[in-house]
Design goal:
By secondary structure, the chain is an alpha/beta fold. The chain has 20 helices and 27 strands. It has a domain of 122 residues: ANL, C-terminal domain (GMP Synthetase, Chain A, domain 3, 2-Layer Sandwich), CATH 3.30.300.30. The strands form six sheets. A nine-stranded mixed sheet has the order 2-1-11-10-12-13-14-15-16, sandwiched between helices. Strands 4-3-5-6-7 form a five-stranded parallel sheet. Strands 17, 18, 20, 21 and 22 form a five-stranded antiparallel sheet that branches.
Length: 574
């Protein structure tokens, strides 16, 4: 397929990115946020000020002789300043997962060998207990902490002020090694199995260049940032790519404030994971049903399906207005998404782009653009990236491997693990998928999560989970295979199981008058009659577990399947 692309914008390193802030975008608003969720006052920061803050902090860090700086906080302006100050000073940044428990944060600090840490007030106790070699402990909220000096903390705001009066000569003359180690990112997982991915500025800048050829983001756009910035999907796609295009980043007040923030900030786009889009879509359909407009809306969707996006936005103006009135661009990645959900958003006048990538590839490997889309796919390889299917089966499904200039340098202090995934210049993703005749990539699931029956049949949990999640009362689900060891000698096959998390209020609306003791029976009947009947018999769900307790997930809402299965086994043995 001959893909139509935009011209794109090429950068060599993050100093060139900051130079865009100082010149091309200097008079535009870079960030908009509030001190507290209920505040009416919006704080706005221009790109010119953002660049000054980056440079002043960078100069202070160089003056302190920092080398490797850990960074942890909620999404906030100071995080973005810190990230670019550290990297444009030629230092190494180590973004840490803000949701990890104290013991895991301390372990990652130790593993990364960070000599400094920049943190918010939520992590005072963690930093106080830090027994690693963090000589400099820089607090973003220093002025709000009584006796902060007694803890040995350094004021973030004071470093910004100090940087104004220190010589900038060393910083200005500093030459960035754009192919050297600049960022260490830990993959999801426990501290014993998480890997420390080493990325260069060259890798991320190549990804930014590829993204700029795929998606037309302009200075008129305002994106809401709510996925955690420590994760490369959000930091690369919203923060670095967004600001390279001169957008305004509105910082979300928290997950429960997303819809409110979409409205009050008049957001035009956001980056998210499919789970969030599916939850929002269920709410949209629920509102339509409550207004008794479902039939009318479905007819309008059919009539205007092939109309221009502008026409659709006029037809479905009420839905658009409920999400702020300006929301248009949605970039989703991280997991497969239900085709009906994608069609729904596109029918209503939203421009949904599905993508695919990994931390190790900085991160985006493939994506859709406005010219070329195919529902259910994750698009086609980005410019400069080669994707192949390794060892495909009869259906063309095999492991996705990629050759990209945005590949990681390797895993920090783990050559063995690096050699397992990088072979002959290709990165072996561990994901399974296929490429169709038009060049679109389809991801079918994780290689390690695939369920293989004794007859060789393969089952991908994600495709069944998508069906289960369509039930209105289901908030999320996890499908897995279970083998009864006690019966293994009888040639017993794998049992397909599903753990289903339900919303009790919604369940009662669907099945009015039922008692809690009957919940499982009614859900099980739905699984048998509505889910199993959509699939061949070998994929039938044979056992369900129901709960209202959320599944164990990463901060980007990916299910930690092994941990969840261990929890199920533990409960089974009680």
């Amino acid at each position: 397929m001959n893909n139509k692309l935009y011209d794109g914008q090429k950068l060599n390193d993050f100093k060139e990115l900051v130079n865009l802030y100082k010149t091309k975008y200097k008079d535009l608003t870079a960030f908009e946020y509030k001190e507290k969720p209920d505040d009416d006052n919006h704080i706005k920061v221009k790109y010119s000020q953002f660049a000054k803050d980056i440079e002043n902090l960078a100069v202070s860090l160089l003056n302190m002789s920092c080398k490797k700086v850990a960074l942890i906080s909620d999404n906030r302006y100071e995080w973005c300043v810190s990230y670019l100050a550290i990297t444009t000073a030629g230092l190494i940044v180590v973004p840490l997962d803000k949701s990890l428990p104290k013991n895991e944060i301390l372990e990652l600090l130790k593993r990364s060998e960070a000599d400094s840490i920049i943190f918010s007030d939520k992590y005072i106790d963690t930093v106080n207990d830090c027994n690693c070699d963090c000589s400099f402990k820089i607090c973003m909220d220093f002025d709000c902490i009584p006796n902060a000096h007694d803890y040995g903390f350094i004021s973030f705001s004071k470093l910004l002020d100090d940087g104004k009066f220190l010589s900038h000569e060393k910083y200005n003359s500093l030459s960035i090694d754009n192919k050297g180690l600049s960022i260490i990112l830990f993959t999801s997982g426990t501290t014993n199995i998480s890997k420390a991915v080493m990325l260069s500025q060259y890798a991320i800048c190549m990804d930014l260049y590829a993204l700029s050829q795929m998606i037309n983001i302009t200075t008129e756009d305002k994106f809401l940032s709510f996925l955690p910035l420590h994760h490369t999907f959000e930091s690369t796609t919203t923060f670095l790519f967004g600001t390279s295009c001169g957008i305004t980043i509105a910082i979300c007040d928290g997950l429960k404030y997303i819809q409110k923030n979409l409205v009050e900030y008049h957001v035009t786009g956001f980056v998210c994971v499919p789970l969030m889009l599916e939850i929002m879509y269920k709410k949209i359909l629920k509102t339509i049903k409550e207004q008794n407009k479902l039939r009318v809306v479905n007819i309008a969707r059919f009539i205007f399906r092939h109309a221009s996006i502008e026409t659709k936005r006029k037809v479905f103006k009420q839905i658009i207005d409920n999400l702020g009135g300006r929301l248009r661009t949605i970039i989703a990645g991280g997991a497969p998404m239900d085709k009906e959900t994608i069609r729904g958003y596109n029918d209503f006048g939203f421009d949904v782009h599905q993508g695919y990538g990994l931390t190790e590839t900085a991160p985006v490997l493939a994506g859709e653009n406005s010219f070329h889309k195919k529902t259910g796919s994750v698009g086609f390889p980005l410019p400069t990236i080669e994707i192949k299917i390794d060892n495909p089966d009869n259906n063309g499904i095999g492991e996705i491997i990629a050759k990209t200039p945005a590949i990681m340098l390797g895993y920090y202090n783990n050559d063995e693990a690096t050699k397992e995934v990088i072979k002959n210049g290709f990165f072996y993703t561990g994901d399974l998928g296929y490429i169709d005749k038009d060049g679109f990539l389809f991801v079918t699931g994780r290689k390690k999560d695939m369920i293989v029956l004794k007859n060789g049949k393969k089952i991908f949990p994600e495709e069944i989970e998508i069906l289960i999640n369509k039930l209105s009362y289901v908030t999320e689900s996890m499908v897995f295979g279970s083998l009864d060891d006690s019966k293994a000698d009888r040639n017993t096959d794998v049992t397909i199981c599903a753990k289903i998390i339900y919303d009790e209020d919604e369940l009662k609306k669907v099945f009015p008058g039922i008692s809690q003791t009957d919940y499982c029976d009614f859900i099980w009947n739905d699984i048998k009659t509505k889910i199993n009947k959509q699939m061949p018999a070998y994929k039938y769900i044979r056992r369900i577990i129901i709960s209202t307790e959320p599944l164990i997930k990463t901060t980007t809402q990916k299910i930690k399947r092994n941990e969840e299965i261990n929890r199920i086994k533990l409960n089974d043995n009680k």
